[in-house]
Amino acid sequence: MDMDAFNDDFKVTSKGKHKSYEIDYESLTQGAVEKLMQADIEHISGIFGVDENTASLLLRYMNWNKERLIEKYMDNAASVTSSAGISPLEPPTSQSQAPIRSSIEAFVCPICFDDSQTKTLCLSCDHTFCASCWIAYATSKIRDDQEMAIRCMAEGCSLVAPDLFVRSILEEDTTTWDRFRELVIRHFVASNPNLKYCPYPSCTHTVSCPSASSKSSLATVVPTVACGASATHKFCFGCPIDGDHRPVICGVAKMWLKKCRDDSETANWIKSNTKECSKCQSTIEKNGGCNHMTCKKCKHEFCWVCMGPWIEHGTAWYSCNRYDEKDGVDARDAQSKSRASLERYLHYYNRWANHEQSAKLSIELYSKTEKKMEEMQITSDLTWIEVQFMKKAVDEVEKCRMTLKWTYAMAYYLDKGNEKELFEDNQRDLERAVEDLSELLESPIEAENIPTLRQKVTDKTVYVQKRNEIVLEDTANGFLEGRWQWNCSVDGFD
Amino acid sequence: MDARRRRVMKEIADCKNDKSSNIRIDMIDDSPFHLNGSFPGPEDTPYQGGHFEVDIVIPPTYPFQPVKMKFITKVYHPNVSSASGAICLDILKDAWSPVLTLKSTLISLQSLLCSPEPNDPQDAEVAKHFTTSKGSFDDTARYWTQIYAVDPSARGKSSEKLQSAGDEVAMAGLEKAHVDQFEALGFERGKVIDALRRLNYRGANVANITEDRIVEELLK
Ligand SMILES: [Zn+2]
Ligand SMILES: [Zn+2]
Ligand SMILES: [Zn+2]
Ligand SMILES: [Zn+2]
Ligand SMILES: [Zn+2]
Ligand SMILES: [Zn+2]
Fold this sequence. Notes:
The complex is a heterodimer. By secondary structure, chain A is mainly alpha-helical. Chain A has a domain at 251-481: Up-down Bundle (Four Helix Bundle (Hemerythrin (Met), subunit A)), CATH 1.20.120.1750. Chain A has helices at 3-8, 30-48, 52-61, 66-75, 77-83, 92-96, 131-145, 163-169, 174-191, 250-262, 264-271, 326-330, 334-379, 388-413, 418-442, 450-481, and strands at 26-28, 100-102, 119-121, 129-130, 195-197, 206-208, 224-226, 234-236, 274-276, 283-285, 292-294, 301-303. In chain A, a hairpin with a 7-residue loop joins strand 3 and strand 4 (129-130). In chain A, helix 2 (30-48) packs across helix 3, helix 2 (30-48) crosses helix 9 (174-191) and helix 4 (66-75) crosses helix 5 (77-83). By secondary structure, chain B is of the alpha+beta class. Chain B folds into two domains: 3-114, Ubiquitin Conjugating Enzyme (Roll), CATH 3.10.110; 124-219, no CATH class. In chain B, 42% of the residues lie in helices and 10% in strands. Chain B has helices spanning 3-17, 102-114, 124-132, 134-149, 157-165, 168-171, 176-183, 189-198, 211-219, and strands at 24-27, 34-40, 51-57, 68-71. Chain B has a four-stranded antiparallel β-sheet. In chain B, helix 3 packs across helix 4 (134-149) and helix 7 (176-183) crosses helix 8. The longest helix of chain B is centred in the middle third of the chain and has 16 residues, at 134-149. Chain B is elongated. In chain B, 34% of the residues are buried. The A-B interface holds A 110-114, 129, 132-133, 136-137, 139-141, 144-145, 153-157 and B 3, 6-7, 10, 61, 63-65, 97-100. Bound molecules: zinc ion (6 copies).
């Protein structure tokens, strides 16, 4: 069996190239962003007839807004120039070269009080300091303050060192110079609503996603993107939430996270990884992501999330995902109302936290699975590639738990009615499929059953994928069609 | 000797040699990077006659990053935290320049005492007091100077006694009659002082605050 055939096992028929829950974007390297920046600099340099160092400082001062810069410059060039920290006295070209003065008479640096320094530097303001002070100063500004406007060291002097000057003093410290360039690029990216810097530590890629650049667009799409450095560098273009929060839009996701933070005290207990068996009260610890628990002592089978008997979960009346609003309606006095609202919240929070926790435990499941895969290669004649179906299944379970997690945030805010019921039907189907597969993955392997297990896991993985696809597609379409109604006011909706 | 040490040592020596200024910088122990600065309160201000001590910490990146300073002596001033001594002053932050020195910074603190910036306050309650009733503010600042900043060498038992016995009402810049009035309603004296201070029940502002509002605050 070759890799293609293996991949075919998991192919889900997609209607078009572009799924409604996906967004068009492009990943750019630091070099590519630098080119965009350079184009702006050359453009301004050409229009104003100034050198590129000056054009760059002007653009930085105006947060890379070319139109506003041109407007202001036409209005009062001198004022913009001096506010940007560029010397008005001399033609800008002369300050680009860092003047190096060899001192004739003894020079005492006003900063380090050292009179033995021979190399001194100044900007066009003539405020002269020794070279080692300049180096220490620029390094500290860049490294400690993440500063990309290096001002003259003299008190009250607002001249900014042009890039050539900075480069000349950092000649021997390319790391700091590179950091400086990165800061300038980050500033350029941060100033451009179409661009976003990859939030992963020490990654230098940028994503361009113009269709999610406006606030209003975020009411209809969830712009999950990944930078070109790695597929694991997944982030939301629209908000600072970690990773992928599909299918729920940024505004609702943010509201939910805030609620969880505010109510964390009350909800903390739920996160705990141990519970008591509802039948014999012995302590049960959860390991692995599966929610089908079996008490080691009394063999009682129950659902980790709702603590109800597991037997009910495999049947048509499964409703672990649905909160029964009836209790809330009956609540008459304020106290039982607030109790009902807390219970309602806990219903969703419980499931949200559980999927998050289970996804985390997937790492454990992962290493267990790897062991199983090795076992399989020994006990059966399957090749390494042929046992990949296990890994693929674990990946899928983890991915779908993320989707499920966020569906609970969405369901909490969805207004009662048909649409919510349909949403919860899809959610339930996905959840059931995921729990099924998850359970299958944790079942013991017997050599003679491997071919059947392989078939079962592969089939279920395809099914889970399909259910996930349905939840994502249908929710995304609902946003585009304006189908979702909320039970509170949500940014971007009336 | 590294450049930072050389520079700080020279700053300390220069300050010592400068007989004309009344700024002092002293080492606390052997390290030149943790110092004690002091200066007299400026004349014709509520701080006149006081002696103000400042805790000085020289960061590893000094003088390229600003020196860290805070008042050790308690000061009643809009830009100084009445609780922690933290100072809100631009040159200690963005406006710092490596050519500034410990001495020049202490002089800036001295002149901050002459000209408060209530629009950029460190202590919001004190700033409110300053902007709404300057006369009463001056009285309180003067009182704090008397209690905390006068004659540091003699600050022994007698002044400690003064502190603990120091009139809480005057310390808070309030009027005794006002505090008595609400204490008579059965509220704890300390609570009354806190509430009146929070509400800035001083000078002309008294007319803007109803008794109900104060009782409400007291019942919080
Ligand atoms: Zn120097
Ligand atoms: Zn200068
Ligand atoms: Zn990245
Ligand atoms: Zn988002
Ligand atoms: Zn049990
Ligand atoms: Zn359940």
